Amino acid sequence: MRLKAAIFVLLISWAPLFAQPKVVALKNGSSTAYIGGFVDLNHVYVSVDDIAQGLGLQTFVLQSTGKLSVYSRYGSLLFTPNNNFIMVSVGTETKMYQLPLPVLSADGKLYMPAEYAGLYFSRILREVLTYDEKKTEFSISQIDTSSPEIVDVRGTEKANGAVIEISMQSLPRAYAATIAQGNMLYLTLMPAVANIRRMNSLPPTGVYSNIIAIQNPNSVQLSFKLKQNYISSQVMMDSTSNSVIVSLYSQVDVKKILSDEIKKKLEKEKNNWKLGVIVIDPGHGGKDPGAIGVLGTEEKNVTLAIAKDLKKDLNRILPDVKVVLTRDKDVFVPLDERGEIANKVGGKLFISIHCNSMPTKPNPSHGVETYFLRPGKTNEAIRIAAQENAAIKYENDYEKKYKSYDADNMILTTMAHSAYVKYSEQLAELIEKDVSRVANLADNGVSQAGFYVLIGASMPAVLVETGYLSNIREERFLRSRIGQQEIARGLTDAIVQYRAEYEKNFAEN
Asked: What distance in Å separates the CA atoms of residue 189 and residue 173, rounded to the nearest whole number?
């Protein structure tokens, strides 16, 4: 038990580092609510508060302990931070249930595994909350009055444990099994019904001394008092016999299995977070020239030249890092496909290179600006984002394609990028400092804005405006080989420093 507790603590402490953000839909008839959450070690965790709000339930937080209560007309659920137990009160009956995974606390909210949310929320509803693991979405349905009935329960001793077989009229849609203190097995089947009096009077076997059955609105919980301690369990459903089979193990070296599993998972996560692939995105291209300077310089040519120089520098200084360009010649690449390219090659960093321009030319505005993805705070940031986003007009059916990129969806999208914001901002600050220093350009600072090109990249991502083509002096610098090479060198210095700080921080944590 000590090892299990230590492993849970380890997983919880690593969660903020490895968790990937996730937004899960909750569909209720014609309406849809969005549940915030994250993916951690292959489990989707969802906000308990958001589920309650999506279901129209009331909540109360006890500030002194952080415990969260969720209320309906029919009962309540009590969640405790970083704890496996949920207290369920329905009518006059209160029961404690144990989750296989703990409820986690992050950013002042409680998160529970999505795969178990339906089992517990459905107990205080007069409807069924179901989680579809493939679609990663919740749905609401009416209680199935024709729920399959439990026909019989049998226990059989085995050499290295035991097997409990629950025969049913048909198989349930979901189950949850937990061993507590070694000699209590809690099994929940949903949907299911049972003759409670008959279940509670079943004779003992060599595996268990008695069964306590509880009928919930759309599920049955069976509590088995086991005759010996078991250290692990496995559940499977046999469609040939309509049976739910629980295998109990007593002679498995669980400590070693868990230890080896954790080591493998941590090593896998460590490799996943190494900065092994950098994606460079030369803005515009092909039929999209981008901004055009006073002297006729096209943005697409400047960005491609800088990107090629940057790739060459990175290949020389970081030979163990793969550098990928979203385009390496004068071709048009739709904005949404640039992020897809980065994701497909396993990118860990995405840098989109652009040149700025003012509406009127010539114009004295000059200098470097670097952005990360967030709704724009200033009018200038919003203007620049709109200018770069206008590239979608070169795409077929762009109005339909980018219809969802409205203000509300931008908020949801930036929520999904929240895990990368710290790293994106850190990289943006290094780029702003090093490019302005190496290329001797004005430092206009780091800002945030809703650039479409950054939305699809599931990694730290920034967009750098390397200078103004509407300023004749800066245009001459941007179109020159010396200017392009100096900007690439500044970008290289920033990336090298970022990688060193990033991997040092990773190793220390």
From this structure: 8
Backbone phi, psi, residue 449, to 5°: -165, 165
Q: Is 488 left (phi over 0), alpha (psi -120 to 50) or beta?
A: alpha
To which H or E segment does residue 368 belong? strand 368-373
The structure tokens listed for 118 are: 């339906």
Mark whether 90 and 232 lie in a shared domain: no
DSSP codes, 331-344: ----HHHHHHHHHH
Q: How far is CA 368 from CA 72, 206, 371, 383, in A?
A: 55, 76, 10, 16
Domain shared by 297 and 176, yes or no = no
pTM here is 0.49
Structure-block tokens of residue 70: 């969720």
CA–CA gap between residue 175 and residue 254 (Å, rounded): 22
Confidence of residue 142 (pLDDT cuts 50, 70, 90): confident
- pLDDT tens digits, one per residue of 198-230: 888 899 999 999 998 888 777 888 999 999 888
Confidence check: pLDDT of 411 > 60: no
**What DSSP state is assigned to residue 462?**
E
- Structural domain boundaries enclosing 52: 2-142
**478 and 373 share one domain:** yes
Asked if residues 89 and 75 have their Cβ atoms less than 8 Å apart, the reply is yes
Which of 165-174, 263-272, 324-333 shows the lowest mean pLDDT across its residues? 263-272
Beta strands 243-249 and 75-79, pairing class: unpaired
111 part of a folded domain: yes
For β-strands 443-449 and 368-373, DSSP reports them as parallel
Cis-peptide, bond into residue 81, ω within 30° of zero: no
